[in-house]
């Protein structure tokens, strides 16, 4: 199960590149073509001017501050009003905060908010600098409107006078280049928040790093449980809400590799399913529950946290005459609930389930962190010795070459060399994981096993892990090749432990037909030259290991995956070491990716 994400490695253009598009029209032309979110028509202020508020983190536009801040809260985890209240920010501090976020987003340092603290005593905020009283761009209507509707704050100053002073402050900073700052013109506004087509959203990691406590770097103090629970609830609402769209369910149902693996496991193992009690965690449309009912299950409990999809699954079950209630005599029950709160919605005895089934996997297997819910259901309701489907999950890693990047495209664009763009894009992708389909022919190393999970026995905290793997160059091509990074994928097994008649495997490998999970791509900060040991000369070679002059005979990886600070996200750290045929080593800096 994986929420829809744009599968594109192309990132933001730099300011220099933006200039190349100046002939396409200025910002006014672009803005006139955009639909403003929040109403069928663009609203106007009393003076007749348009109300156009640009999101702090993305390219969405709104007709009011309230709509903008609600969008930031739901989509980017940034609760402006809540943060102002928690941190007791006055008008000036709030003004600086907005400009600080604008500047971080403009520099590609921030795409969402992850700071959660209601106690910043003795902390100097990273935005508490005079330079953030100067608007990042002059026509930021949000700066002059965010406090208009405040009812609880008593004005101790003339707001119009303050706003005029702030506008004058911007006029004083004429030579911004001499000051080493970047000024954003109207044309830059269209790129201030970057591309919407970035596969993954990073977070304000730099904000944490900039916090200073008594002159020393420090992490923000941990917030109380109420604030954490409130933010987790918001993330859960967004997460389950994303699955209320029929588009993602069509995508998953159309994924034949995925759906047929579950179908075969449920329909082709009659001794497992016939007469059994089945629980389906995260049922969606109810397809797995329908398979279980068709296989002869005595009772099927379909659990779905999305209210809309729970209703859809109920309707589908009724349409297919398998629903069970006072009016129907089927076997399928639908419970609208998170599995952790299932006891509040339906009566089911602990340890009374024979088969627990769930399609819980996300990108890179563990994105969305739904596995913990499946393990909770296992420990709470599965009988001792009961079956969990799938019962194994395995992660693999391999190195990829130039063909898996956008470099070949940019090297020949209608006969013109635009490789400089490709190189810049590749540098940017070293900061963000990319979800994309990688072809087998673009792998330059043999695959290696990274981590295995036994879903029947593993503990919840084993979701976080550190593992090592060694990548050996492929022998098929007798030449030196550049390894630009690594690609991660997973297999889930319906093994003979439970599926005795027909064990099967669901694979998201580059060697098998593609799935909606694709693969997860982590790009090195610099490519590593590799070649089979049999091709490397025996005499000493000059040059650093991993260069063209001295290719590595293998790459040793150390990969850590952990649940991130932001609920349902994961952090991935990647360490690479090049090894020569004589055992010499070269280490590259650790890279951190957030998914």
TrEMBL record:
Acidic residues bias locations: 14-27
> In terms of domain of life, where is this protein from?
Eukaryota
Localization (cell): Cytoplasm
Q: Where is the C2H2-type domain?
A: 55-76
A GO CC term assigned to this protein in UniProt? nucleus
Q: Which UniProt keywords apply?
A: Cytoplasm, Metal-binding, Methyltransferase, S-adenosyl-L-methionine, Transferase, Zinc, Zinc-finger
Which intervals of the chain are annotated as region Disordered?
Answer: 1-47
Record-level Gene Ontology MF annotations: histone methyltransferase activity; protein-arginine N-methyltransferase activity; zinc ion binding
Q: What InterPro entries does the entry give?
A: ANM3-like_C2H2_Zf (IPR049482), Arg_MeTrfase (IPR025799), Methyltransf_25 (IPR041698), PRMT_dom (IPR055135), Znf_C2H2_type (IPR013087)
- From its record, what is one biological process in GO terms? methylation
Stored PANTHER family: PROTEIN ARGININE N-METHYLTRANSFERASE, PROTEIN ARGININE N-METHYLTRANSFERASE 3-RELATED
Instruction: Name it.
Output: Protein arginine N-methyltransferase
- Species this protein is from: Arabidopsis thaliana x Arabidopsis arenosa
């Amino acid at each position: 199960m994986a929420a829809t994400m744009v599968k594109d490695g192309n990132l933001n253009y730099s300011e220099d590149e933006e200039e190349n598009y100046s002939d396409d029209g200025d910002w006014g032309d672009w803005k006139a073509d955009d639909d403003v979110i929040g109403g069928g028509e663009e609203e106007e202020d009393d003076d007749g001017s348009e109300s156009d508020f640009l999101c702090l983190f993305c390219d969405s536009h709104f007709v009011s501050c309230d709509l903008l801040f609600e969008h930031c809260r739901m989509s980017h985890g940034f609760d402006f009003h809540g943060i102002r209240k928690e941190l007791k920010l006055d008008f000036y501090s709030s003004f600086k905060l907005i400009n600080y976020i604008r500047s971080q987003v403009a520099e590609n340092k921030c795409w969402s908010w992850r700071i959660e603290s209601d106690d910043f005593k003795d902390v100097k905020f990273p935005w508490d600098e005079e330079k953030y009283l100067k608007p990042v761009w002059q026509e930021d209507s949000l700066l002059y409107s965010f406090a208009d509707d405040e009812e609880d704050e008593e004005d101790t100053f003339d707001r119009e006078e303050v706003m005029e002073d702030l506008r004058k402050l911007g006029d004083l900073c004429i030579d911004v280049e001499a000051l080493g700052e970047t000024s954003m013109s109207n044309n830059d506004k269209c790129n201030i928040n970057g591309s919407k087509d970035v596969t993954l959203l990073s977070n304000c990691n730099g904000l944490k790093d900039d916090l200073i406590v008594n002159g020393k770097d420090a992490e923000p103090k941990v917030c109380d449980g109420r604030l954490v629970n409130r933010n987790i609830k918001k993330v859960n609402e967004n997460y389950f809400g994303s699955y209320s769209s029929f588009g993602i369910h069509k995508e998953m149902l159309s994924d034949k590799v995925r759906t047929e693996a579950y179908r075969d496991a449920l329909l082709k193992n009659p001794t497992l399913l016939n007469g059994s009690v089945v629980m389906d965690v995260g049922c969606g449309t109810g397809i797995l529950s329908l398979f279980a009912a068709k296989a002869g299950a005595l009772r099927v409990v379909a659990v779905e946290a999305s209210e809309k999809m729970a209703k859809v699954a109920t309707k589908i079950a009724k349409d297919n005459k398998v629903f069970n209630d006072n009016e129907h005599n089927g076997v399928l029950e639908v419970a609208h609930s998170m599995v952790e709160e299932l006891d509040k919605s339906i009566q089911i005895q602990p340890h009374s389930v024979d088969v627990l089934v769930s399609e819980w996997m996300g990108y890179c297997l563990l994105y969305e962190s739904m596995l913990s819910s499946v393990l909770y259901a296992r420990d709470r309701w599965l009988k001792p010795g009961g079956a969990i489907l799938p019962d194994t999950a395995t992660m693999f890693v391999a190195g990829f070459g130039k063909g898996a990047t956008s470099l070949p495209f940019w090297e020949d664009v209608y006969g013109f060399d635009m490789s400089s763009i490709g190189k810049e894009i590749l540098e940017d992708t070293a900061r963000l994981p990319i979800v994309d389909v990688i072809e087998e022919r673009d792998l330059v190393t043999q695959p290696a096993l990274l981590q295995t999970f036994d879903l029947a026995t593993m503990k919840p905290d084993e979701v976080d892990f550190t593992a090592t793997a060694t990548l050996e160059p492929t022998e098929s091509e007798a030449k030196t090749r550049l390894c630009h990074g690594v690609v991660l994928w997973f297999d889930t097994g319906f093994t003979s432990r439970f599926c005795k008649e027909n064990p099967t495997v669901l694979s998201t490998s580059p060697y098998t037909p593609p799935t909606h999970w694709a693969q997860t791509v982590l790009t090195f900060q610099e490519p590593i030259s590799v070649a089979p040991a049999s091709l490397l000369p025996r005499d000493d070679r000059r040059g650093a290991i991993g260069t063209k002059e001295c290719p590595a005979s293998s790459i040793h990886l150390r990969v850590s995956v952990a649940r991130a600070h932001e609920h349902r996200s994961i952090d991935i750290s990647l360490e690479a070491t090049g090894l020569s045929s004589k055992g010499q080593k070269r280490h590259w800096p650790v890279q951190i990716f957030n998914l």
